[in-house]
Amino acid sequence: MASKSDRITTVEENLLKAGEDNECFKEKEPLGSNSFRISTGDSSLRNEQAIQPFQGLKLASHNVLERAQLTGRLKCSKCCGSRMFYCYTCFSLVGVNQEEIPQIKLPVKIDIIKHPNETDGKSTAVHAKLIAPDDVTIYTYPCIPEYEDKRHSVVLVFPGPGSVTVEEISKQLLEVSQKRSSASLEEPCPKRAKHDAELKDAQGVEGQQSACPLQRVVFIDSTWNQTSKIITDERLQALLQVELKTRKTCFWRHQKGSPDTYLATIEAIYYFLKDYHEQCLSQDYQGEYDNLLFFYSYLHQLINKAKHSAGKLN
Ligand SMILES: [Zn+2]
């Protein structure tokens, strides 16, 4: 049987191996709140942030993950796969109890569409499902929902020529509702009634103008190259596209040939929600969604440590 230190090494080696396809690994702009200012001035501050990229986030204690790491890999009770912390196939925890990890409620529903060829172990989509199980659904392409009737309340986070900013979502969705409503005046009665009900939905209950008609946000979880097939699927064509413009990734598996702003799925969800909270709900952000990065921040630190000890990072 392996000693404790052997097991730790194995974990780090595994994680390091997972990150190794990125030969150009280097620290990007960190995730901490200071990182939102993409300054070029103070290099000592930037170095500090590179060492502690998650500083300033309100994260639950990682003690539970440290303990699970000492135990080592265990069999997933559902698929029997050998896993650490969670099973990326079954979306369930392994060696960690539900009560021990943070759980949060999101202000909108999240649909994540995964590419079937995506190597599951590298996907961060499962992090969202584990931390916000009531609000997150993961679909494997091509099995995705029909959004055609929900264009007034659903957006797709993906950059493109017609994409809008998070701040513009409310206005754009209300315009979709109004267009549909006036088009429906030409329609026979039952269909018109349905559209009228949708418009009322979008505008809020009993005449109250709700701040934002958004109810569901769709993310695509796949490598940069595989995404094009999903994005051109006609079921997604009608959706308003939203772009997260200013974020730079701190993903340790930064993908070759992708722009710096290409985010890990969990980063994209986090940044979207933070912007949505401030710009659409007009509320002060006080770390409400920081724990979405609970697993991500731990794995990131672990990989950095392993890279340091392997002498790959200065
Ligand atoms: Zn499993």
TrEMBL record:
<protein>
    <recommendedName>
        <fullName>tRNA-uridine aminocarboxypropyltransferase 1</fullName>
        <ecNumber>2.5.1.25</ecNumber>
    </recommendedName>
</protein>
<dbReference type="InterPro" id="IPR051521">
    <property type="entry name" value="tRNA_Mod/Golgi_Maint"/>
</dbReference>
<comment type="function">
    <text>Catalyzes the formation of 3-(3-amino-3-carboxypropyl)uridine (acp3U) at position 20 in the D-loop of several cytoplasmic tRNAs (acp3U(20)).</text>
</comment>
<dbReference type="GO" id="GO:0005634">
    <property type="term" value="C:nucleus"/>
</dbReference>
<comment type="similarity">
    <text>Belongs to the TDD superfamily. DTWD1 family.</text>
</comment>
<keyword id="KW-0539">Nucleus</keyword>
<dbReference type="Pfam" id="PF03942">
    <property type="entry name" value="DTW"/>
</dbReference>
<keyword id="KW-0949">S-adenosyl-L-methionine</keyword>
<feature type="domain" description="DTW">
    <location>
        <begin position="83"/>
        <end position="308"/>
    </location>
</feature>
<dbReference type="GO" id="GO:0016432">
    <property type="term" value="F:tRNA-uridine aminocarboxypropyltransferase activity"/>
</dbReference>
<dbReference type="GO" id="GO:0006400">
    <property type="term" value="P:tRNA modification"/>
</dbReference>
<dbReference type="InterPro" id="IPR005636">
    <property type="entry name" value="DTW"/>
</dbReference>
<keyword id="KW-0808">Transferase</keyword>
<keyword id="KW-0819">tRNA processing</keyword>
